[in-house]
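discrete fold record:
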Amino acid sequence: MLLVQKHISVAIFGSGAGSNAEALIRFSRLDTSFYKVVLILTNKEEAGIYEVANRMHIPIEYLSDPKDSSRMSELLQKNNVQVIALAGYLRLLPADIVRHFEGRIINIHPSLLPEYGGHGMYGEKVHMAVYNDKKPYTGITVHYVDEHFDTGSGLCQSKISVKECNSVEKIAEKVRKVEHEVYPLMLNQLCKTIYSQQ
């Protein structure tokens, strides 16, 4: 019996520890997954995402100049990448990459956008702002990527109560747990939709 290839090829872009990248890769290995992670790209030579890539046996490439769209494009084409998932990637993607992959690039942000979004607002900085503002809740947003920081149209949001969190670390931990549950599901849904349109 011929097995139909149902996997959409995904590249993950990351600049940090790689915990969301790991969650995406783990989900990709389930029978219910419609995507396969074929490449990780990073703009940080010392990023923890290298350790994740090596442990999970995913090829990783360093982007010495994240504005160099020709090198980026070459790597994406070589690996037949169909979808891009940003996971803690702290640079804007070149405009021509965004245009080429329109509707096929998503990102996860650790707040209920547009709150605590924009340039310089990422990771611990977001959680610190939520903590300092004494917010009873925060959340996550999965959204399409456009040419600006955190302004692409939203795919989903999850609200998270942080009333009982008495530190920035506790907020970060609670948010990260939800990120790892929701992001793979949203990427899978997007890839399933793209697969069904092929």
